[in-house]
Design a protein that fits this description.
Blueprint (H helix, E strand, L loop, with lengths): L1 E10 L1 E3 L4 E3 L1 H10 L4 E5 L13 E11 L7 E9 L1 H4 L15 E4 L13 E4 L12 E7 L8 E3 L14 H39 L2 H28 L5 H15 L4 E5 L5 E5 H14 L3 H8 L20 H7 L1
Parallel strand pairs: 4-8
Antiparallel strand pairs: 1-6, 1-9, 2-3, 4-5, 5-6, 7-8, 9-10, 11-12
Helix pairs in contact: 4-5
Length: about 325
């Protein structure tokens, strides 16, 4: 009677006196590089010589799972078959209860690419394994065809189910799903790579001379626009007193920076959009237009009072034209 045992082969973490570290990438390397079958030896030393017998095989790698008893760690699980003589040292409910107890993997790195691979599995005796606490998860007893297969499950770390052969239709559906999942992963990776490329291009463009030149042109255009609209206002009110011209230009320059427009309605209900500079221009126009020059002149003096005979309404006193001009 042969039994296939499901064992935790190794897990991530730091182990031993030398602080050897196993990472999740190491476990993935072992899955990728695994070539069945890998030998089982008694102790590590016997695996170094080709004259020592093997005491079983690591048949397959089952996968990488979350380690239920070591939070945040991953565990590599595999299927092993022991030699009948070694089977006597292991029960179906324990990881060894005779002269040998526990096991340890040899996982060197390949010289070609530096990836770890499973060289062999050593059954431990007097020296405990470097990775403590590895467990036997399942034992499957293999009988002749037609006999019942008995399965013993002694851990809730991994939810195993007895394998049921798939029909051809199920196999096709599974293949289609795997192909679809692969395409979705590839599309997602391409989209992610494309997004990163775009972000890199934007970052590089913002640091480029072309970007700096474009920003300078935009600033020059804005300055030209602002200068033009200020000049229109200043030209429109060129006849304001000299003392006010500088102030008009300063206020117009400040208002020209704001291009936001507002909607207004006149007394007839006609609507128009005006900027702050437009309103300033309208305000100046209104102030200059009222009161009118002729109205001021008519209020300040009467033209009939200016006569050649000197009778000017001031008791014959001569009119001082410079004072009149000053009043105007």
């Amino acid at each position: 009677m042969k039994k296939i045992r499901t064992w935790q082969l190794c897990r991530t973490g730091t182990f031993g006196q030398d602080g050897a570290k196993i990472t999740e990438k190491d476990l993935k390397d072992i899955v990728e590089t695994f070539t069945p079958t890998r030998p089982i030896s008694i102790g590590h030393d016997s695996a170094k010589g080709d004259n020592f017998p093997k005491f079983g095989d690591v048949l397959a790698i089952d996968g990488i799972y979350d380690d239920a008893k070591h939070k945040g760690e991953k565990v590599l699980v595999g299927m092993v078959m022991l030699h009948p003589e070694l089977e006597k040292q292991f029960s179906d409910k324990d990881d060894g209860d005779g002269c040998y107890k526990g096991w340890s993997v040899t996982i060197p790195r390949r010289a070609s690419d530096g990836k770890r691979y499973l060289h062999s599995l050593a059954i431990c005796g007097a020296t405990p394994p470097k990775i403590p606490g590895l467990e036997q998860l399942m034992v499957k007893s293999c009988y002749s065809d037609g006999d019942t297969v008995e399965v013993f499950d002694f851990s809730d770390a991994i939810d195993y189910q007895e394998e049921i052969p798939m029909t051809e239709e199920e196999k096709k559906k599974m293949s289609d799903l795997e192909a679809e999942n692969k395409k979705l992963r590839e599309d997602a990776e391409k989209a992610s790579a494309s997004k990163k490329d775009e972000e890199n291009k934007k970052e590089k463009f913002s640091d480029s001379k072309e970007y700096a030149d474009m920003q300078k042109k935009i600033e020059d255009l804005e300055a030209s626009r602002k200068e033009a609209v200020v000049k229109v206002v200043c030209d429109k009110f060129a006849d304001v007193p000299a003392g006010l011209k500088d102030n008009v230009q300063k206020v117009a320059g400040i208002l020209a920076s704001n291009t936001e427009s507002f909607e207004f309605s006149d007394k007839d209900g006609n609507k128009s959009n005006k900027t702050a500079l437009d309103l300033f221009s309208d305000l100046l126009s209104g102030l200059i237009a009222a009161p009118k020059k002729e109205d001021v002149t008519s209020r300040q003096f009467n033209a009939d009072e200016f006569s050649d005979n000197g009778n000017n309404g001031d008791g014959g006193k001569e009119t001082d034209l410079s004072k009149v001009a000053a009043k105007m």
